[in-house]
Specification:
The structure is a homodimer. By secondary structure, chain A is an alpha/beta fold. Chain A is built from 15 helices and 30 strands. In chain A, the strands form 6 sheets. Chain A has a 10-stranded mixed beta sheet with strand order 5-15-13-10-6-7-8-9-29-30, sandwiched between helices. Chain A has an 8-stranded mixed beta sheet with strand order 19-18-17-16-20-23-27-28, with helices on both faces. In chain A, strands 12-11-14 form a 3-stranded mixed beta sheet, with no helix packed on it. In chain A, helix 5 packs parallel to helix 6. The first copy, chain A, starts with 11 loop residues before the first strand and ends with a strand. At the A-B interface, strand 3, strand 4 and strand 18 of A face strand 3, strand 4 and strand 18 of B. Strand 3 of chain A pairs antiparallel with strand 4 of chain B, so a sheet runs across the interface.
């Protein structure tokens, strides 16, 4: 099938099921689209059974995991995560095969998944992002079918509606009590919010809270996942490497080019008029995004503007803005560094929200849909403002969707910040290799060579002109960039070998990633 | 059918469905009982729809409420609740008929339900308790079928497994934001925990948050019900009478008889050895129960015992114990007075839990099942230790199951405190009129005439003897009481007219309440 953006997408891929082609960012959000979450079997538990075990093998056996089932993990422990590696190692030893691995993201910490795929232990993958060795491996077609890439809102929707049905969730929980009440806000492997894990816990058939910090019942004062959703508490020596758990993808920048892009983005945001009392704001943890946050921080402080909430992916910078009184509260679905864990533990205005509250498009409302301003990164942007955050210059899988598509669709102003080219390859392309976020939902692209505003946003163009900002036509910018870098060789792909499907937040397929021809 | 306690119970009653007879307190808790929660349809919402309305009629219309559906309300606003009366008045005006009214409890504030039943607006009732005019009305058989009485754990179970399927939940929420994030911990009608409402919010097809304190998005710092579960925010002038919201059924006692019962109960608890570091405790809000709490409070303070948690039904007294450092935390499913609302708002160790976390027997675990000690009241107890908390001396419906059966089944020590007779009628009966809590789960009955210990608890009898407590055989006590009061005239009931079914926590029917012959 060809979707409304002209991309080839499949109708059905096992074991994921049937798909509809993407038909517009809000095509399923008119109030007319309905569905049915499936029936869920349950077992009334034996009174007084002991949930705690110290044997991974025993936990896997008790979970009833068998060939062909779906297991889930989260990435709140970032690049320090040891939970997936140690659990999957035992599953592999036990000879269980043909699993669907449903991860919120696969990171540098998850290289072992390559071996699991090679051995047939894992034969299908759901993830918002595929980084490192797993991304490279899946890019070669080794899975034998495409991975299904789902952003954070999409995953929450899929779990709720049952299109992603998790048999066993192994959830790293930095502190848990003997009954399974659990949190990420304290313990030696503290990671902050457990927002993504909270959804898996609510819907998986069997939930294992994996911890290295078992505390007496009841956990207090913060329970992120309540006991009644947890079937087993598995105590292991360590959830991972605290140094790598503490530092995620957060990077502060001193690069003059990045700072100049950030300053332009800030000026556009200021010109939009949205940076006013009661405003809400999200920015990622990339260098330019953080620099935009710094400009916003300074401006709000100078002007005495108190915003409503910062959302996301919460960085130490956002917690500083909370402490400075620049926001009433933080809504935290995922924390980016260790400073955040202490803030969420100590400051009640720093609120933990689950992935549905963050971005699920099929619940009655979610925080991204209330957002005023979002600042986003990109690997590639095309002249229709479509954004690619999943494939790199070589056409291979890297990066991830995260909340990119969700926030772009929900926010009043979505600003993509990016240099116009990287390593002599244009970022501003004629057509992106992979569409993850439709141009329909992207309001502006800010580069070091000026600001491109989506022609749909005449209001924003007028405001930017009034503020005398350097607006450039995105097609002209593309031509300028190509005149500098030269036209890059087109990436030739093997259309018989899809390696990833990119699911839009509403469950439709927005693009297919194919294997690159060697 | 006749159940394992010899009570006549029906196999099927519309619209509630089919029932199994009670077969023992733990018959379904061996790990073998399975079921299936039904499929749940959903509608993907229109982007950016406005949830707020100030018209009750509009809210009812938008909810899609029609003849024959099920509506739910909670009783967290206690005797001050105006939510049910004002909503039901509009529903009645609109001519909607044949509704099933699924309330967590019907109180003195809900006399209007009698008119709704008379007019055919309400034709079936679920409630944990039926007090005041509604109790009297339903006792006459005016419903034309029995009400279904479900304790707190039973209701959570029924909602989760789908045997109670709520079409529209009208949830009084003392503070809510424009997207429906809601809490009971602040606002002019603050009521404390929204533990029962939290379950309705998660499972009802359509959820209306009814508030008199609309705040900007996002509500902070405590969200009890997240926005994504809420379909509409209905703003009304007042949720009720703050004076009556503030005071529930809490009654301190200076009655020497009650104090002597309380002291005996405390001595039994002390003798049990359970009042040790890390202990957990629940006591109701009745006069004797509160007096027991006072003795326990004083003892823990003197002995320097720090307990783990107090559970329930949280009173101002429990919050004082938290402040005095006698418990690590409070787990609060329902708050009994206004002091509690400020505690839950300000002290993070005072944790709000939902009804499943409190007492749902079919989830992996719940707080009552971890409880050491519970102190419970009774309207009537029989020589098999069966307890009645739903029918009074005249055989009419009053009181309610609440968490009685749940805590009795879950706690290591369940102590019923009661005078041996009231108004010249024996409380210690040969056979209770209505069984709500099976004797199998009741460890001791403490009266002013001594302590009766369940013969199953030989260990407890030995400990009580060692402490030289005045143990009496319950049959002997019954004979003694009858010799004082005279044998009361038996209550003659009309077995062709069941007025209430008493559901045990596992969904089986433990007893039927019949209309009393005039």
């Amino acid at each position: 099938m060809i979707n409304s953006l002209g991309r080839f997408v499949p109708e059905r891929v096992e074991p994921y099921g049937s798909f509809s082609p993407y038909a517009g960012a809000f095509a399923r959000q008119t109030g007319a689209f309905t569905g049915q979450a499936p029936a869920r079997p349950f077992i009334a538990p034996r009174m007084g059974y002991d949930k705690v075990t110290r044997s991974i093998r025993e936990a896997v056996e008790r979970s009833g995991l068998r060939d062909g089932m779906t297991v889930s993990f989260h990435h709140h422990l970032r690049n320090g995560d040891a939970v997936l590696p140690v659990i999957m190692a035992v599953i592999r030893e036990m000879g269980i095969k043909n699993l669907t691995l449903a991860c919120t993201a696969l990171t540098e910490a998850h290289a072992c998944v390559v071996d699991c795929i090679r051995d047939g232990v894992v034969t299908a993958v759901h993830a918002s992002g595929l980084r490192g060795a797993v991304g490279r491996g899946i890019s070669t077609g080794m899975l034998g079918k495409p991975a299904l890439m789902q952003g954070h809102g999409s995953r929450a929707r899929a779990i709720q509606e049952g299109s992603l049905s998790i048999d066993v969730a192994f959830l790293g929980t930095p502190t848990a009590d003997t009954a399974g009440n659990a949190t990420g806000s304290c313990g030696p492997s503290a990671c902050g919010s457990l927002g993504y894990a909270m959804i898996d816990a609510r819907y998986a058939r069997h939930v294992v809270a994996v911890t290295d910090n078992l505390v007496p019942y009841p956990l207090s004062p913060r329970i992120s996942i309540p006991e009644y959703l947890v079937h087993q508490v598995l105590v292991i020596d360590s959830l991972g490497d605290p140094a790598k758990i503490a530092s995620g993808t957060v990077r502060y920048t001193r690069d003059p080019l990045q700072l100049s892009i950030a300053e332009s983005a800030f000026k556009l945001i200021r010109a939009s008029g949205l940076l006013a009392p009661g405003c809400s704001f999200q920015a990622g943890a990339g260098g330019v995004s953080l620099a935009v946050s710094s400009f916003v921080h300074q401006y709000m402080k100078e002007q005495g503007i108190k915003g409503s909430y910062a959302l996301g992916g919460i960085t130490g910078h956002a917690t500083a803005m909370l402490r400075d009184g620049l926001f009433e509260s933080l809504l935290d679905v995922q924390s980016f560094d260790a400073a955040v864990a202490s803030s969420i533990h100590e400051d009640p205005r720093h609120m933990e929200i689950d992935a549905s509250a963050y971005a699920n498009p099929f619940v009655t409302s979610c925080a991204v849909n209330n957002l005023d301003i979002v600042v986003l990164a990109a690997l590639e942007v095309d002249t229709d403002f479509n954004v690619n955050v999943v494939t790199g210059v070589d056409g291979g899988l890297r990066g991830g969707i995260g909340g990119h598509a969700d926030t772009a669709a929900g926010a009043k102003l979505s600003v993509v910040v990016t240099p116009s080219f990287r390593d002599r390859v244009p970022v501003i392309a004629d057509s992106v290799l992979s569409i993850t976020t439709p141009g329909e939902t992207v309001d502006a692209v800010v580069t070091e060579k000026g600001i491109c505003i989506n022609p749909r946003r005449e209001d924003l163009i007028a405001l930017a002109n009034k503020a005398r900002l350097p607006i450039v036509d995105i097609k002209a910018l593309h031509r300028e960039v190509v005149s500098l870098t030269g036209k890059p060789d087109p990436i030739e792909v093997d259309e018989t070998c899809p390696v990833a499907l990119v699911e839009y937040r509403d469950g439709t397929i927005i693009d297919t990633v194919f294997k690159v021809k060697e």
